[in-house]
Write a structure and sequence with these properties.
Domain OmpR/PhoB-type: 2-108
Strand content: 5-15%
CATH class of the largest domain: Mainly Alpha
Pfam families: AAA_22 (PF13401), BTAD (PF03704), Trans_reg_C (PF00486)
CATH topology of the largest domain: Arc Repressor Mutant, subunit A
Helix content: 40-55%
Largest sheet: 5 strands, parallel
Structural class: alpha/beta
Distance between the termini: 40 Å
CATH superfamily of the largest domain: Winged helix-like DNA-binding domain superfamily/Winged helix DNA-binding domain
Number of strands: 17
Protein name: OmpR/PhoB-type domain-containing protein
Number of domains: 5
Organism: Planobispora longispora
DNA-binding region: 2-108
CATH architecture of the largest domain: Orthogonal Bundle
Length: 636
């Protein structure tokens, strides 16, 4: 669930109480209010799941009429929103529900909405835990987490989860509940399990039988209570479930606990939970993550196995490498009890981070004291390797350019695993699991566009939608930008956007929204190329088609075929050129990369025409307009 900003200045205690951690609930001065008919309650539920953030009108319509909205859908939605405004009243800052950015926003603070209060209490508990409060007599961390857990009244929005958008939000919240419950259970068991704690753990574990962290805590609790045989039975049940459902075996920490139970017939196991300083420090999973299910499943199975220590995800710029890595990491945290840690090798503006900055960020994430203060690179590297030894953590290293950036970060010992994302193949890393991401299939691209823009608009003009995703080369980043632009400008028809996309001087002119620009991302990828490769890319951009033969490439590069082949191999390794048919000498540049390379070629040609040795007037007239190439004019 996305982080939200509380509304400043709200009164405490608030007269209004809103609840979704169980059946939908609206109270004023502790008196239940009728939230209206089902569709009105659905609107309220969706807005509450996304409190303080805009929800697109089309998303609300999809939630209300999944089988196809009536012609009066927007008018009906306005009626429901108007009724909810009257029901909920206003905040001290203004209306409770406002319309902005093509959608509706419901304002609420922590005192009013239970899931906001839950998340704040969980943050407090984890902060106290990092500070060592669980060792204090009052058990401050465990108490804060317990206060968060008692806010749950049952399954999230029970009876309303048949609406897909609510089902997805409910699942995210319940994942957060389980993680918080496991934190609380570990703290209680570490302090000495009571029968009540063991019974609560057993109830939750029965609903989630393959969560390894929860099962490990259950085994430790049973052992402390002298119920060693039951603890061993829990392990056996988990082992059979993992093997039957996923073809996996329990993780090393569980195996070690099982061995200690077998070896020690007398003493009772005490659980010492892992406590990285900042827990699982991963970026938020991309909203509307779509496609890549097979690659994600393979990635998870590889990393969950013992020995699956290094995975490299490669592919062209904008293909979704980071999104896949983060999505898989979020689902693997149970297998890595010492945390999932994420580090970008570049700043937001593309500037490379220094090795010292990268290592300091990882040491801070791991909770190593003084990690950011070490000046000696050798000492910093040694501290990182000491922390990794004997631990099982997952490290996500994003946007690598060369092998030398990666090698110092790789675990030398221990059971930790690493995911690396890179545009280039990083072949020098040697033996590892490799995943190369292609562009989306047509169906995957259309599904992502539908998820962002809304089913009603896409299904209402599917031929235009298909042409849009094809025009952007089925590139996930470009599909997402096109979708966000259509969602923002909901007055624009798909046909109008397609006309702009195909009629622009360059398709890249239309592929920018907010501070996200596909052209800027492509420019960054080209800037990373060696000068000779970037020069070759500009020359290939002058070719009239994105697919070309070796002979055509040699002509554009003004080289013999042997030299052209070596140049193309360097571009293949950098993932700016591909071979669409194995065993052939036919090459292909992604559609949008070819559009950008054509812009570079045109800019070079324009510069040559302005040089002291201008070309003929006829050639000059053709430059900058794409004459003779059949391509739209480009922007320098």
């Amino acid at each position: 669930m996305r982080p939200v900003r509380a509304i400043p200045g709200a009164a405490e205690p608030a007269a209004l109480r809103l609840g979704i951690l169980g059946p939908l609930r609206v109270l004023r001065d502790d008196v239940p209010l009728d939230a209206g008919p089902r569709k009105q309650r659905l609107v309220l539920a969706v807005l509450l799941c996304n409190a303080n953030a805009p929800v697109a009108v089309d998303s609300l319509i999809d939630a209300l009429w999944e089988d196809g909205p009536p012609r009066t859908a927007r008018k009906n939605l306005q009626v429901y929103v108007s009724a909810l405004r009257n029901l909920l009243g206003a905040t001290p800052a203004g209306p409770r529900i406002v319309h902005e950015m093509g959608g509706y926003v419901l304002a609420a603070d922590e005192a009013e909405l239970d899931w906001l209060q839950f998340e704040r209490k969980v943050r407090d508990g984890r902060r106290l835990r990092r500070g060592g409060a669980d060792g204090e007599p009052d058990g401050g961390a465990a108490r804060a987490l317990h206060e968060a857990l008692v806010l749950w009244r049952g399954p999230v929005l029970e009876g309303m989860r048949d609406a897909a958008v609510i089902g997805r939000a409910a699942q995210r919240l319940e994942d957060g509940f389980l993680a918080a419950f496991e934190d609380w259970a570990e703290l209680e068991v570490a302090r000495g399990a009571s029968l009540e704690v063991a019974e609560r753990i057993a109830v939750v574990a029965q609903r989630h039988p393959v969560r390894e962290r929860l099962r490990m805590t259950q085994m430790a609790a049973l052992s402390q209570l002298g119920r060693r045989t039951e603890a061993l039975a829990v392990f056996d049940e988990l082992r059979r479930s993992l093997a039957g459902e996923f073809g996996l075996t329990p993780g090393p920490a569980l195996v070690e606990l099982h061995r200690s139970l077998l070896d020690d017939h007398e003493s009772r196991v005490r659980l010492t939970p892992p406590r990285p300083a900042a827990g699982h420090l991963l970026p938020r999973e991309a909203p509307g993550f779509s496609g890549r299910e097979d690659q994600r499943r393979t990635l998870m199975e590889t990393l969950a196995r013992a020995g699956g220590r290094l995975t490299v995800i490669t592919g062209p710029v904008g293909v979704g490498k980071t999104a896949l890595a983060v999505s898989a990491a979020h689902r693997l945290h149970e297998h890595f009890p010492h945390g999932c840690h994420f580090v970008r090798l570049r700043e937001e503006n593309g500037t490379p981070r220094t090795p010292a900055q990268i290592m300091s960020r990882l040491l801070w994430s791991a909770g190593v004291p003084g990690g950011a203060d070490r000046a000696d690179p050798a000492e910093t590297h040694a501290a990182w390797q000491r922390w990794l030894a004997g631990r099982r953590a997952l490290i996500v290293i994003d946007d690598a350019r060369r092998e030398s950036e990666i090698r110092p970060l790789l675990p030398e010992t221990g059971d930790s695993a690493v995911i690396v994302t890179a545009r280039t193949a990083l072949a020098g890393l040697g033996c590892c699991h490799r995943t190369t991401l292609p562009a989306f299939s047509g169906a995957e691209a259309l599904a992502l566009l539908r998820r962002i823009v809304g089913r009603r608009r896409i299904d209402g003009d599917e031929p235009s939608a298909r042409r849009i995703v094809t025009a952007v080369g089925l590139l996930p980043l470009a599909v997402r930008v096109a979708g966000e632009k259509l969602a923002l400008f909901d007055h624009m028809s798909l046909k109008d956007f397609l006309r702009r996309l195909e009629g622009a001087r360059s398709p890249l002119d239309e592929l920018a929204v907010g501070d996200v620009s596909v052209r800027a991302r492509l420019a960054g990828a080209v800037a990373d190329l060696p000068p000779s490769a970037a020069h070759a890319l500009r020359r290939l951009g002058a070719l009239p088609r994105s697919r070309f033969t070796l002979r055509e490439a040699a002509g554009a590069l003004e080289a013999d075929e042997e030299a052209a082949l070596r140049t193309l191999e360097s571009l293949l390794e950098a993932n700016v050129v591909a071979v669409p048919y194995a065993g052939t000498r036919v090459y292909e540049m992604p559609v949008l990369m070819h559009a950008y390379a054509w812009e570079l070629a045109s800019a070079t040609e324009d510069a040559e025409e302005r040089s002291p040795h201008p070309r003929t007037a006829g050639t000059e007239a053709g430059a900058g307009s794409g004459a003779g190439t059949g391509r739209p004019a480009a922007t320098a």
